[in-house]
Amino acid sequence: MDQSVKDALARWPDVPAVYGWLSLDARGRWRLHPQGQSAQGGPGESITNSQILEFINRNYEHDEAGRWYFQNGPQRVFLRLDAAPYTLRLSDDNRSLLTHTNAVIDTVEAWKLDDAGQLYAMTSLGAGIVLDRDLPPLLEKLATDSGAPLLDALADLPRGGTIQAAFPGAYPAAPLSLIAQENVAQELGFDPDPRPQAA
Question: Which Pfam families match (predicted)?
Fold first, then answer.
């Protein structure tokens, strides 16, 4: 978090949070909802200013309830997550994963594959969905703990079953299990659409 943001928080600790103005789509793009209506499900407007994007990326956090927000000076801007708190992509050398905020993923604690074919990783930073364009090459790299191609093993994985999946050279084996898309937020521990709490 930027020092200027920490200073603003110390100076004005009780600024009310806002909801409905910001969302993060499945491709890791920040979207602005000028009327504060992200809860209505609209796509919003793309934020393209590089300085604003970098500021949001540096000041992106979550609270203990799994609600993610952008700390805009002294004010928390809670956001709607269309897929997960992070969107993960392969690094340029294809040897690790990076978040949409350009943070390097050091560890993967678990993998989740939903019934729509989307892959998620539980990381030390939080849960992330693998970017759609990087999913095929990543699946080609993943292997079971015995070294067999993961794609071959997935065909025999029953619902409720778990196999070990490793990214050789990057992440050691971690459990991979199947989940229903409707249960992703609950199982990965985040609130996809925070609302103001009742007084």
Answer: DUF2944
For residues 180 and 96, membership in a common domain is answered with: yes
| pTM, to two decimals | 0.91
Total number of domains constituting the chain: 2
Tell me the CATH number at 42: 3.10.540.10
Predicted confidence (pLDDT) per residue in 126-172, tens digit: 999 999 999 999 999 999 988 889 988 888 887 788 999 999 999 99
In a domain? residue 195 = no
